[in-house]
Design a protein that fits this description.
Elements: H1 2-35, H2 41-45, H3 51-70, H4 82-106, H5 114-144, E1 150-155, H6 159-170, E2 176-182, H7 190-193, E3 199-201, H8 206-212, E4 217-220, H9 224-241, E5 244-247, E6 258-264, E7 267-273, H10 279-299, H11 301-314, E8 320-326, E9 332-338, H12 345-352, H13 373-381, H14 388-394, E10 398-400, E11 405-406, H15 407-411, E12 427-429, H16 442-454, H17 458-474
Helix pairs in contact: 1-5, 3-4, 4-5, 10-14
């Protein structure tokens, strides 16, 4: 009965979301038509609707519903924050607006203008966000009155277990009722007893406790290294009783990695990862890379041709310098740059190693004798980096990301934590470029790359791109 009721409410929520989007579409259409002075409101509502438009709209509804589901709007929100739910709603609405824009570009839908899209996005955002916050408030009030509660039993009495219990009790509107704790060796739990939480059973009595009491969830906080068999037994009991079991995802004590559940051919796995793994921001980042690199290559074609001619006329050798670099997950690729040094520059590096002016495995000297006169100007203005737009277009690099290092530099790394920078696609510019470039120590450079990865967002990429231009103009840290 409980499952039937839950499914009914979930389907009602799905229908309500679709209704809000339809309402937003209708209001945006009316306001856009009225503001364009194409129709009066009476004339707008008297327009005949074509069957083809109805079919297109129905297909849009199906796509929008799929987007809502992919953005996690229909999973349990009891443990999530207001901010997390708002972020998911904003993501879903933004993607729905993009789908509308793409549909308008591909199909003859004249009513979908830029003004309409802005109105649709604004109205959908306001309506859906307001509805979700009102729903959360209503559910919170219901739970404060003692309904829709979840009874939780915590297995283990360590610091993390107590912290979890306090966290769920701090917000009673989430609807969690703490039953108590399970542990053994009761005579050695003086520290736990001072917390004031009830100790209900030892491990041997857990099965009987589950048989006799209402338990909706079990939170497992056992040290797995020393209690693996016991944890296995607790999980088995929860499965037999049909009880939801939660356990701390950070079972290995990882500092920056996150954990998530995955499924492969019916088998369940827990995957740990660093950085961002949501598909939509990465898709947008890649789309921006393709669009920007294509436009820039077209606009800068005359400049690229002039630079190529200058290199050809002033020094012997090829126009482009191609070097093997270490990219995403240590994949090797050939980077493209305008040649700024003499032909045998790589061979001469060994003779200049003793003059290296930077720390770490990288090589850099301020007045490098291998640099040509034209090359010095190209390096100071970063024009030599422009051919890397081809690498961006090919997918080997991004506009923003840690700089791809030569194989020689990579092999000189002596700390594995530094190699995490290779778990994202390398870029033309990053925090290093806008914070002094070769003027900062190698260790700080690596820390800036990891900072970028840990704090990454599309907005951060845009800020770095905006700050790169004045950094290049000033020539800060260029060598």
């Amino acid at each position: 009965m409980h499952e039937v009721r839950r499914r009914f409410l979930l389907n009602a929520l799905k229908l309500f979301d679709v209704t809000l989007v339809v309402l937003s579409f209708g209001l945006a259409s009316a306001l856009a038509a009225y503001s364009d002075k194409r129709f009066s409101l009476g004339e707008f509502f008297s327009i005949r609707v074509k069957l083809s438009n109805c079919l297109i709209f129905a297909a849009m509804l199906v796509i929008w519903h799929a987007i809502f589901a992919l953005c996690g709007l229909y999973r349990s929100r009891r443990l999530s924050t207001n901010r997390a739910e708002i972020n998911d709603v904003l993501t879903a609405v933004a993607l729905c607006t993009v789908v509308l824009a793409v549909g308008a570009a591909m199909l003859p839908i004249t009513m979908i203008t830029v003004r309409f899209l802005i109105l649709f996005w604004a109205l959908s955002t306001i309506l859906m966000t307001s509805a979700r916050m009102a729903l959360r408030k209503s559910l919170g009030q219901v739970r404060l009155r003692g309904r829709n509660l979840r009874h939780v039993l915590v297995v283990g009495t360590n610091v993390r277990a107590v912290a979890y219990a306090r966290k769920i009790m701090q917000e009673p509107e989430r609807g969690y009722r703490l039953l108590g704790f399970v542990d053994h060796e009761w005579d050695q739990l003086d520290d736990f007893r001072r917390t004031g939480f009830p100790l209900l059973s030892d491990y041997e009595g857990l099965a009987e406790f589950l048989r006799r009491n209402v338990v909706d969830e079990v939170a497992l906080y056992l040290p797995l290294r020393s209690h693996f068999k016991l944890a296995f037994r607790v999980a088995e009991l929860c499965e037999q009783h049909g009880i939801l079991m939660r356990f701390d995802g950070d079972i290995f004590g990882l500092k920056t990695a996150h954990a998530r559940a995955e499924e492969l051919d019916g088998e369940n796995y827990v995957a740990t990862y660093t950085g961002v793994r949501e598909w939509w921001p990465l898709v947008i980042k890649r789309a921006l890379d393709i669009a920007a690199s294509t436009i820039l290559l077209a606009l800068l074609a005359p400049l690229l041709a002039i630079v190529a001619l200058l290199i050809r006329c002033t020094s012997r050798g090829p126009i482009f310098y191609r070097q093997e670099r270490v990219g995403l997950n240590k994949r090797r690729f050939r980077i493209y740059k305008f040649r700024t040094m003499v032909m045998d520059a790589d061979r001469l590096m060994a003779e200049l190693e003793q003059h290296n002016e930077v720390s770490g495995p990288v090589f850099k000297i301020k007045n490098d004798p291998r640099i040509t006169p034209v090359g010095k100007f190209l390096r100071r203005t970063s024009i030599d980096e422009l051919p890397q737009l081809l690498n961006v277009l090919k997918g080997e690099m991004s506009l923003v990301g840690p700089r791809p290092l030569p194989v020689r530099d990579y092999e000189g790394f002596n700390e594995d934590w530094q190699r995490r920078r290779f778990s994202v696609r390398p870029g033309i510019t990053c925090l290093w470029q806008i914070n002094g470039r070769s003027g900062i120590p190698f260790e700080q450079w690596m820390e800036l790359d990891l900072q970028y990865m840990d704090e990454w967002s599309l907005w951060l990429d845009l800020k770095i791109l905006a700050r790169t231009i004045p950094a290049v103009v000033k020539g800060s840290g260029a060598a």
